[in-house]
Design goal:
With about 325 residues, the chain is mainly α. Helix content is about 70%, strand content about 0%. It has eleven helices and no strands. Helix 2 packs parallel to helix 4 and helix 4 runs antiparallel to helix 6. About 15% of the residues have low confidence.
């Protein structure tokens, strides 16, 4: 089954740039060119012009655009928030002055060249997906802008600037870094939003086809459970979750947790082909329990993310 994107929570620090955490299922990889050409060869044999390129499949193009966006999100969002957390643990968030009044070593961001190439190539594909193309370009631009500010700050410390000017440069560069982080968080939210619903609908359609073809088997149940876990997470996010929507989603997701348990118990041979499902079953329950705590008193939202990521890790191993 398709791999699932782990979540990154930037709610761990109470900052103005906290972005909404949205779970995404990674899109299914597009068929390689050889597979796509098989249909054209069949058409040629039936009399179609052999040198005429087949019209692009809009669903396949959308999948390639989604894959490029998700690859960027998977590769860079978590790292940016890790870098931010490390930086803000070393400096006064208000001034940018190191808390130990000494030079600091900044974490690296890693290369984003592959992400940039992928988004550029995806944007050139037609038919266009204006909302997704724009959000993807905005994400890449915001990442590049943050990198520029971050590298300027890194160079300041590496060249001994803090010692030279007693921190004046740190104070001057800090608001630029934080503003770039705010813009990145906004771009991250926008791209998550553009990807999320498109990707969900693709997976729902795929699961429907599989269920019609193969019946409601273990792959369909687990795939549906992961989609509904994503929706559950979206309902636990934000300062004031919608109590009615969260309660309804708890019921929907809870029914799938029970269905998975019952199916595994009643289909031992099929379950055995997956290997041990104990962790998937346990973490699916842990997500449910953590979300119930949010519904009850509003606490533990990061625990929902943590348990969901454990669930994702175990699903992705199968």
């Amino acid at each position: 089954m398709s791999s699932v994107l782990r979540l990154t929570s930037d709610r761990l620090l109470p900052l103005a740039l906290a972005a909404a955490v949205v779970g995404l299922l990674a899109c299914k990889k597009s068929a390689p060119p050889a597979d796509r050409g098989a249909g054209s060869a069949a058409g040629s044999a039936a009399g179609a012009a052999p040198d005429r390129a087949a019209a692009p499949d809009p669903a396949q193009i959308e999948g390639q655009k989604l894959e490029a966006a998700i690859t960027c999100l998977n590769s860079h969002t978590e790292r940016v928030f890790e870098v931010r957390a490390g930086y803000l643990s070393d400096v006064d968030p208000a001034t940018g002055m190191p808390v130990r009044n000494t030079t600091i070593n900044l974490m690296g961001l890693g290369s984003s060249e592959a992400c940039e190439r992928g988004i550029k190539a995806a944007a050139a594909l037609t038919p266009a997906a204006p909302d997704l193309d724009q959000a993807s370009a905005g994400y890449v631009a915001a990442l590049a802008a943050f990198r520029a500010e971050w590298e300027a700050l890194d160079a300041y410390y590496k060249k001994g600037g803090f010692t030279d000017d007693q921190g004046a440069g740190a104070r001057a560069l800090h608001p630029k870094v934080m503003a770039a982080l705010d813009r990145f968080a906004a771009a991250n939210r926008a791209l998550h939003g553009a990807v999320g619903e498109r990707n969900r609908q693709r997976h729902l359609a795929e699961l429907k086809v599989r269920e019609q073809r193969d019946g409601r088997n273990l792959e369909v149940i687990i795939g549906t459970l992961m989609l509904e876990a994503q929706t559950l997470l979206s309902h636990t996010d934000g300062p004031t979750p919608d109590a009615t929507a969260l309660a309804a989603q708890l019921t929907t997701y809870g029914a799938l947790v029970d269905e998975l348990d019952a199916y595994v118990s009643g289909h031992a041979d099929e379950a055995a082909r997956w290997g041990s499902l104990a962790n998937i079953r346990n973490y699916s329950k842990a997500v449910l329990a953590a979300a119930k705590t949010v519904a009850r008193d509003g606490s533990g939202r990061d625990e929902v993310v943590r348990q969901y990521n454990f669930l994702v890790d175990n699903v992705n191993r199968h």
